[in-house]
Design brief:
With about 725 residues, the chain is α/β, with parallel strands linked by helices. It is about 40% helix and about 15% strand. The strands form 4 sheets. It has an 8-stranded parallel β-barrel, surrounded by 4 helices. Strands 16-15-14-17-18-20-19 form a 7-stranded mixed beta sheet.
Length: about 725
């Protein structure tokens, strides 16, 4: 829809006065002329904020639907919530026209509307008539000529408490003279005391607590931010909205209407409002809900708000330029990036898929073009041993991107194989960061170099983790560490398996020490909690399937069998995955073998072919969409599809099918045993692929990582 709007609708609307065009868009929504969002609801995006359950984190900001004319149609565009207003007790015309100006060159808007609205009574009547089930906030303000502005906000609470999902006290519009004075500490304290007291009185009458948010300006001084944070916390306000429009014109490129007075919104507001958001998050702590607004134009900018500290985000002005399809596009993008949202830190310093199995399954040959998910980067490097034509590595986690680029640079520039092994295969080598400074850092791109040079809260550079043991960090490293702690609490030292000298002794250790742990009440209780198993890559959908296979609605028996495979099905000296799980390190010389990418026999080929790898911060589907037809031979999806919706899987496989060469193969793993695409792919896409079930089962049994239920190979079907 956005593409059609950009090419056709926007040109026509931009011939009209902005306020007339706005009125036409309201009429179109009211009449049902604008189609509803076709992005399926993704339950993974649902979250509870201020006691309200939001179906997704994207909302329509106040200012668009001032008079509560179209909250229902807005929710149907894909928004998880919408906010009407600003409404004042009495109707008012606002400032003289013209009062809205497009800054097309900047994709921005300047407005000096001045709280034009039809008043409380009209908005309340419409909200009651609509009988909405979704989340609709009410943004309340004061009349321009009010003798008692605080009383106007109190009146808003009294009027709308029966219908509002939440309130926003708007004290930051730059278009009502003197309104921003309410942000001063003494005035703000009086306002919050009065508003919250009225909210509590209404809660007693209606038996419902309506959260109250405060919307602040992006132009506040540091002292002003300090004062607001202090008052918000002392009054125990429910949340903040950061931010309103700005009076600043910094960053605008030359263009029409830049000189107009009023509040600036749109893309140029993004950096300023996000910086203020981050400052307020630091001041108010991690628990107070914050809604981020200002310049949100894509899934990436929404994520930037979230990373800066927002729990929810809102947009408005950017939809002027992108059209009504923008919320759906953002929600789709957030769904695709969900894994990165859930696991924003370094997740897997080591990839937990067996590269030897991968290469056998792909029948990898010289000249193949590969697209793979990056994760810890070990497997992409191992594939280089077979001299493929190219490897495109994709990942949405910026920590994985930095790690993959670091490893590639190390192979290119460290002097010898021994130096590479010391850097990535040995723990507690204090000189590793010195080798980085001398040989690797000068050859990294600026972004990656800045990442590894950044200092942690403890004051250490990130690269110094290689002086210790990087494999004890990240989501999986911490998950394994928690497992060791639980075992010790029950008198078991998992690292003692390293003392065994045969597979018989490995079996004895497992049966006597490890297996009984799964009968312990604490462990059975933990394995009933879905979120506690994210570190093993088990999402809720697969958890439910696994739990259904055992008594007691727990996957403890499944985890027991997989740990048994890890401990008993392979000789410890041949399984570096077991060393990481049980000993939390790689084996030393004489104890066992290193990961494939660190083996001496692969070193020359990996070093020689390292320039054939390109690392992309993108989704698999996004990268494939940029590639020509029939250009990719092998696809490595890891377990990414476990986290995807049906729509995302079909979009992915549509691009795979388009870009696949005649003998292409796709490999992936699943938490459960069954292939996740069966019964979910459209019939025409599924018909293009053959499932190599017997070979998949054979290689799954050989997968030394042992944590997955299924390994799957699909080959392009003969025409």
């Amino acid at each position: 829809m956005s593409g059609l709007f950009s090419s056709l609708g926007r040109k026509g609307l931009f011939l009209l006065d902005p306020e007339v065009a706005h009125g036409m868009s309201i009429a179109a929504l009211r009449s049902g002329f604008i189609p509803t969002c076709n992005v399926p609801h993704d339950p993974r995006l649902q979250q509870t904020v201020a006691g309200l359950v939001f179906p997704n984190p994207l909302g329509m900001a106040a200012g668009y639907d001032k008079n509560a004319e179209v909250p229902g149609p807005l929710l149907k565009l894909g928004f998880g919530f919408t906010e009407i207003g600003t409404v004042t007790p009495r109707a008012q015309a606002g400032n003289p026209k013209p009062r809205i100006f497009r800054l097309v060159e900047n994709e921005a808007v300047i407005n000096r509307l001045g709280f034009n609205n039809e008043g409380h009574a009209a908005a309340l009547s419409r909200l009651i008539a609509a009988g909405l089930r979704g989340i609709v906030g009410v943004n309340i303000g004061a009349n321009k000529d009010s003798d008692d502005r605080i009383a106007d906000y109190v009146k808003g609470i009294e009027t709308f408490s029966a219908v509002a999902s939440y309130f926003t006290a708007n004290i930051s519009s730059p278009n009502t003279p003197g309104l921003r004075d309410l942000q001063a500490r003494e005035s703000l304290s009086a306002l919050l005391s009065a508003v919250l007291a009225q909210r509590d009185r209404e809660a007693e009458k209606l038996s419902r607590h309506v959260p109250v948010f405060l919307k602040i300006a992006p132009d506040l001084t540091e002292e002003g931010l300090d004062d607001i944070a202090a008052e918000v916390l002392s009054h125990r306000l429910d949340g903040l909205i950061v931010s309103n429009t700005t009076l600043s014109r910094d960053g605008l490129v030359p263009g029409s209407n830049n000189q107009e007075t009023g509040g600036l919104s749109g893309r140029p507001l993004f950096e300023r409002s996000t910086a203020v958001l981050a400052k307020m998050r630091k001041r108010v702590g991690p628990d107070l809900p914050i809604i981020g607004v200002g310049g949100v134009s894509s899934a990436e900018t929404a994520l930037e708000k979230i990373r800066a500290g927002a729990d929810l985000v809102q947009l408005y002005s950017c939809m002027v330029y992108e059209g009504p399809g923008l919320p759906g596009n953002i929600i789709r993008g957030l769904s695709e990036r969900l894994f990165g949202m859930l696991f924003s830190g370094l997740v897997y310093p080591q990839i937990w898929e067996d590269p030897d199995v991968d290469m056998q399954a792909m029948e990898l040959c010289e000249g193949h073009s590969i697209v793979t998910i990056g994760s810890g980067g070990c497997n992409a490097l191992a594939y280089l041993s077979q001299s493929p034509k190219s490897i495109d590595v994709v990942d949405l986690n910026p920590h994985h991107i930095a790690l993959n680029r670091l490893k590639l640079a190390a192979f290119r520039h460290l002097p010898s194989h021994g130096d590479v092994v010391r850097q990535f295969g040995k723990a507690n080598i204090g000189s590793n960061s010195e080798g980085y400074d001398r040989f690797i850092a000068p050859n990294l791109d600026a972004q990656t170099r800045a990442y590894w040079s950044k200092r942690t809260i403890a004051g250490r550079r990130r690269i110094s983790v290689f002086d210790r043991n990087i494999y004890r960090t990240g989501l999986l490293g911490r998950f394994i560490g928690a497992g060791h702690l639980l075992a010790r609490l029950h008198g078991v030292k998992l690292q003692d398996i390293a003392k065994t000298r045969s597979m018989e002794e490995q079996r004895q250790f497992f049966d006597e020490k490890v297996a009984p742990l799964f009968d312990k009440p604490m462990i059975r209780w933990l394995t009933k909690r879905k979120s506690s198993l994210f570190g093993l890559g088990i999402p809720p959908r697969q958890y439910d399937e696994l739990a259904s296979l055992s008594d007691g609605n727990t996957i403890a028996p499944v985890l027991r069998r997989r740990l048994e495979k890890l401990a008993c099905d392979f000789s410890l000296k041949d399984n570096y995955f077991a060393w990481q799980a049980f000993a939390r390190r790689y084996p030393d010389a004489g104890e066992g073998t290193l990961p494939d990418y660190l083996k001496s026999e692969y070193y020359d080929a990996i070093r020689r072919n390292a320039d054939r790898v390109t690392v992309h911060h993108a989704t698999f589907t996004e990268l494939l969409a940029s590639k020509p037809a029939s250009s990719v031979d092998r696809y490595v999806l890891l377990d990414a599809q476990d986290w995807m919706s049906d729509v995302q899987i079909n979009e992915l496989w549509a691009q795979i099918s388009r870009t696949a060469t005649p003998d292409a193969r796709v490999i992936f793993r699943t938490a459960a045993e069954k292939s996740v695409i069966e019964g979910r792919l459209s019939a025409d896409i599924r018909a293009q692929w053959s499932y190599l079930e017997d070979r998949s089962l054979e290689l799954n049994a050989k997968d030394r990582s042992a944590i997955y239920g299924g390994f799957h190979i699909y080959q392009r079907a003969s025409a």
